[in-house]
Give the backbone structure.
Amino acid sequence: MEVTIIAETTGDALHPVTAQLVGAACSMGGAPTVICPGGIGTSEASTISGVVKVISAEGDCFGTFDSGAWADALSPLCEGVVMTSSSAHGREVLAQIAAIRDIPIVQDATGLESGIKVTRPIYSGKAIETSVVSPPCAISIRQNAFESPGSDGSSDISTVNNSSDIGVAVKEALAKASERLDVGEADIIISGGRGMGDPSNFSHLYEIADIVGAAVGASRAAVDTWDEIPHDMQVGQTGKTVNPSLYIAVGISGAIQHLAGMRSSKYIVAINKDADAPIFGVADYGIVSTWEEALPSLKEEFGKL
Amino acid sequence: MTIAVLLKQVPDTTAKITVSGGRVDESAVGKWSMSPYDEYALEYALQLKESGGGDLVAITCGPARASKMLTDAAAVGADSLVHVVSDDSGIDSSNTQSLLASAVQRIGAEVVLCGKQAADTNAGSTGPGVASILGFTCVGMVSEVSAEGGGFVAMRTSPSGNEKVSVSKPCLFTFDKAATEMRRPNVRGIMMAKKKAVETLTPADLGVTIDSPRVTLESHSAPAEKPPGQKFEGAESVPTVVSKLRDEANVI
Ligand SMILES: Cc1cc2nc3c(=O)[nH]c(=O)nc-3n(C[C@H](O)[C@H](O)[C@H](O)COP(=O)(O)OP(=O)(O)OC[C@H]3O[C@@H](n4cnc5c(N)ncnc54)[C@H](O)[C@@H]3O)c2cc1C
């Protein structure tokens, strides 16, 4: 079965989800071709085990993100099952490729079986949907839901020049408020809620995050109440959906819309002074305590690791 | 200028979702609401109308119950309401995109706003798919938009932060959480909205043939139950939890 993977890139390198896409394709019996938009990450892509060939898609349009232009330029290169990451960009490009090629689309798969049987969470994780779709079709996958294969491949790289007209002009790029790890990319997240009392108290979370290489997240109440806490830190229904190995919720009550963004985390730790807070319902390890008492000890213990 | 906003009625984010007989039981949903990201799209559609004039048309595609949500949109200022009646279960994403694209074409809108994804399917294919069918420029993950010099300026999230982008008509914006929440209706708005007619269209009215869905739903199921967690009293339990994270969970 032919599979075309559109690589996900960050800056000038491949994003780790690209290898997971190859793993997902191979797990359902696919033979994947990886297309690297803008020619980014081609040599790394060629080493991912299982990749049949790599196409470096070069063209002026790849300098700016314009999903319509990207889809126009990439669509003619796609065959069989077209796959992307279910990142914001991945979904947008894939939906347009599916529309251009008139193929069915399923977004944000967390499970794939040959057939093709696709499993995905719906209603923000309150239910799971299983559906069946046949090639040619388009499927995006959730980051960290599939294993990456090894890196002992050595597939050929060919270059295609294919551009398309850009309709979106970037007038100004505004860098993130901080250079910190993004919650969407982190394997450990420590999030603070309204219970932190004041945005300056997030410094305790940053200190702990720095020790274990974690990202700092926040509840919507924290983001909406305090200007110092930007929206890109928000986890939940109207924030980011995260899938880390460890999620530590501090002073977060566990409203259903917060759970929507983090309940699929592998392990959840909750620190809350209210023993009846709903967050304890999803926590693997709950600590009934104020953060003022618990965080110094957490910092010390992490420091000893 | 005609502005279209695409809205979807979904179970309220607080609603409990129950599965029975392999399907989500819609009759058990206590409250239906406008999908949260669509509310942001509606707010900015209203702002575009207020700043530049024009007609704001709210369009939904969904079963009969969805009509109420259009009335809610009228209560905050949508000028006309279009309901493409379809039975959700019989159509897939491609069908929905075709229906909405035809509805946009029919009203002659040059700018379309919608949510980045709906709170039920969580897919995010509709906006970009509709843009592609219509040949409109698509700008996703938008948190603000305003009219400027015949075109638009929008703020969008990018992997490295935010980008201020400019785009000309025709175009489509999909909204992330925005800078401003949707306004609340006043009493007069609610009264006026009750009298506003909803134009009801069938796929045939739009000249769209609904083929059998190419994504076949096999089943819905409840998410796997997590084993109950361990709960500890007091900050003195922190060392215990950290050692469990290391030895039991192996995550640090
Ligand atoms: C459409 C919609 C979308 C939404 N989307 C999101 C979303 O994306 N993300 C999100 O998070 N929310 C979202 N919400 C909001 C959600 O309903 C809650 O209001 C929000 O999550 C509450 O945030 P919180 O837990 O920080 O605050 P609170 O609910 O106020 O909880 C604060 C907690 O801190 C604890 N606490 C207080 N002091 C201390 C202390 N000293 N030490 C330890 N614990 C303490 C309290 O016991 C309490 O449990 C959404 C709501 C709606 C309607």
Residues A 193-195, 219-222, 234-239, 251-253, 255, 257-258, 261, 272-274, 277, 290-292; B 13, 36 surround flavin-adenine dinucleotide (CB under 6 Å). Residues 6 and 38 of chain A are 11 Å apart (CA to CA).
